[in-house]
Amino acid sequence: MKQSRLFMPTLREVPADAEAISHQLLVRGGFMRQNAAGIYSYLPLGHRVLHNIQTIIREEMNRAGAQELLMPAIQPAELWEETGRWGIYGPELMRLTDRHDRRFALGATHEELITSIVRDELNSYKKLPVNLYQIQTKYRDERRPRFGLLRGREFLMKDSYSFHATQDDLDEEYTNMYNAYSRIFDRIGLKYRPVVADSGAIGGKDTHEFQALAEIGEDTIVYTDSSTYAANIEMAETLDRYDMQAADVLALDKVDTKDNKTIEDVARFLNVDPKTTIKSVLFNVDGETVMAIVRGDHEANDVKVKNALGGLDIQMEEEATIIDLFGCEPGTLGPIHSPVKVVADYAVKYLVDAVCGANEANTHYTHVNAERDLSHLTYHDLRFVVEGDMAPDESGPVRFARGIEVGQVFKLGTRYSEAMGATFLNEEGRAEPLIMGCYGIGVSRTLSAVIEQHHDDRGIVWPKSVAPFDVHLIAINTKDEAQVELANRLYDELSSTYDVLYDDRKERAGVKFADADLIGLPIRINVGKKASEGIVEVKVRATGEVLETTVDELPRVIT
Ligand code: ATP
Ligand code: MG
Ligand code: MG
Ligand code: MG
Q1: Nearest ligand to the CA atom of 441
Q2: How many Å lie between the centroid of ligand 3 and the Cα of residue 198?
Q3: What's the pLDDT tens digit per position in 359-380?
Q4: ipTM
Q5: DSSP for 294-339, written as a single string
Q6: In angstroms, what is the span from residue 138 Cα to ligand 3's centroid?
Q7: Positive/negative CA dihedral, 98, 103, 109, 113
Q8: What family is this protein classified in (predicted)?
Q9: Residue of 111, 157, 452 with the most ligand 1 atoms within 8 Å of its CB, for mutation
Q10: pTM exceeding the 0.95 threshold for the entire prediction
Q11: Which residue's CA lies nearest to atom 5 of ligand 1?
């Protein structure tokens, strides 16, 4: 492609409304333009990257045995009424009415639609399992569309749905998809972590999110360096509310509670400074470290103890189980002087209660973790470890990081098939609901996530696998005949092997270099003063490495 012909409207200035670096660079580099809040056009450069991401996704989905189809974006309201989601989904679902007053939704997701398709067809165990996917535009009227493609109202998603006769079969496919997702994000060049996630309102139990690590991310994940374990603690809102930072866990102060008998005593003993950031409390039960993450939830007044992270193998100083305490309405514990104190009070109160069996919190705890009876324990068995900046020389092994949810895999079970009467005949000839899984990837969000991780102060640094072109060929001085002649020749030759963007514009070198850095193709070939000697300069965008080479050696140098 000759750059003189490419529709690539670049900007020198940072667009005023663009907070996220990926949003700024996509607009400045001429990859996209905004048409309305959360609604964008992908210009040729952006479209090429999207295409490359989709190719990787298609290759890996097909290789994993899934089949591509394409469903409509417009879906009849009746399907959403069958599952009750027409009501539940709320204002995020975009709705419209046709000329006959029939109601429709713009697809935010396609569980209902796919289930309506298969319910008449997948009627025997002999036809199972099946995994169907599409790459399609989704619509969600997000409360806060922001950060460009990271949270759009119209966006591209790869969504797939699998159907099974047995739970074991679903489990197997879940692992298959989990592995396919890992290959996809590896190939795209993202640093990510699969994390245990909250199954929330959809029900079902197993679900993982694939979180691309980036400061702009709206999710907070907790992980350790020494194990593959990680989880979404879904406390980003709480962090905002308490004005806390999701930074690494700092110091751990080990407090011996042997001589303290009451909650108040323990709280006093912990001597929590109002400036201390407390995100969780570790304590020791029967030689096992237990970590509680505490957060407030305005919607629930009751105390719910959720074993969000329990049972997983976490390598810390000691083996640990993590409990997520939530549902604590701030302000119910009497006079509270600072948000941090609220968290500390709750931490102390509910941990002690949960472990010592002092009140109903324990009921919830034992309810969610029934195989462990902790009721025999007393304060004497506890060792509190408070994270924060109180003993600041020791850094903790549990870390917090911000993540962008680029994908999610989910065992749906029979929620949709039961509601919509999607059954199959099992081997004994009895009708049973189809067992389902669903698996999503935010295609357009992934594009932005890549940039969040791969840029420098001059622009984007595309990983090879998704770059809009492989090679940026630049004729530095278009008035110099030898340069133009050699650049033309290289353009022809390299184009048989590579996607080449050829900057043939009559612009100053400085302008060309600035644009080249901005759009970030992996390899740049500068055809300059030494063109007459058959020598060009190769620059690697990611490392800044520059080397001269003869034209004969060039193919070897750039592979
Ligand atoms: P989020 O928590 O960010 O709102 P979600 O959990 O609602 O996302 P899913 O229903 O799991 O999203 O959809 C599958 C994937 O679609 C997500 O993992 C994400 O990558 C992508 N996605 C969801 N909402 C958006 C959006 N508004 N803009 C861009 N991508 C999105
Ligand atoms: Mg959402
Ligand atoms: Mg989510
Ligand atoms: Mg999700």
Answers
A1: 1
A2: 9
A3: 333 333 322 333 344 444 443 3
A4: 0.99
A5: EEE-TT--S-EEE-SSTT---BSSSBEEEEEEEEE-TTTTS----H
A6: 15
A7: negative
A8: Belongs to the class-II aminoacyl-tRNA synthetase family. ProS type 1 subfamily.
A9: 157
A10: no
A11: 405
